[in-house]
Design goal:
The chain is 44% helix and 19% strand. It has helices at 2-22, 39-55, 70-78, 91-100, 136-145, 160-172, 184-192, 203-206, 258-273, 275-283, 293-314, and strands spanning 28-32, 59-63, 85-90, 112-121, 123-128, 151-154, 177-180, 198-202, 215-220, 246-253, 287-288. It has a six-stranded mixed β-sheet, sandwiched between helices. Strands 7-6-8-5-9 form a five-stranded mixed β-sheet. The model is unreliable at 5-9 (pLDDT under 50).
Amino acid sequence: MNRRLLLALLALLAALPAAAQTWPERPVRLIVPFGAGSTPDVVMRLIADHLQQKLGQSFVVENKPGASGNIGTDAVAKAEPDGYTIGLSIGGPLGINPILFGKLPYDPQKDLALVTMLTTQPSALAVNASLGVDTVAELIDLLKKNPGKYNYGSIGNGSLSHLAMEAIALKSGTQMVHIPYGGSPQAMTALIRNDVQMACLPAISVTPHLASGQVKILAITTAARSALLPGIPTLKEAGVDVEADAWNGLIAPAKTPEPIVARLRSAVTEALTAPALREKLAAQIMEPIPTTSEQFRARIEADVARWTPVIKAANIKVN
């Protein structure tokens, strides 16, 4: 019996590289843990088009929104590890939600294979023009003189936009009132109406409204200036040591055969470096950042280290 088991195991191991060479042999499901039209959805559909052309099979995007991205990410974690269910996730379900939620239905460290990071997008610290400030320093000075007077909007409790503003408050010693909204469009509308006086939102949500003169971008949240937003300083340059770029990455169920993961990573990296796709991403103020699994893991760990003290200091909880 032991000999038969050993032979079966050896046959299985021998078949893995061959399976990777022929993968995919049928349509692949691509799970996005947010709704259609969201930034992760846009990225996944761009990647899906390239994979379909490159690998000759259908890559079908399936949206599974809910619970701050946890539902869709859990669907990937619970899927068969055969290469036919792949997912896209962001910093929330992988790095932030394990801190915010008392319990998750999946373990991001044990239940998922990290394929590659995909893109990053700067968040923009924007203010209503009527606030009368033109720089981060002027905003901080105003907030210090008026603790608790001004409101800021976010795209939800525990979201990156919420954490970014709380980090700014923590680093600058200021106090603001948080008003959460259902998404970037609603938060942006509130900013334009002056229901909130400031917000830290994905740059693509803010830039279309700059021409009206109703809102201003004071800074972006990346470590260095972005070539896609020339002339706009970073928060760090303004003396507020906060980084909060919105990234996303490709994941698979744990135990997905490494040869399949490697082939998928190679195809996706090729897509991200193609000039046509880079141009489409730039139109969304996104930059491609393909990585190894190890680099992807290091980024998640860095986010955990960055946001844990902010969440604790602001006593942010999500039920």
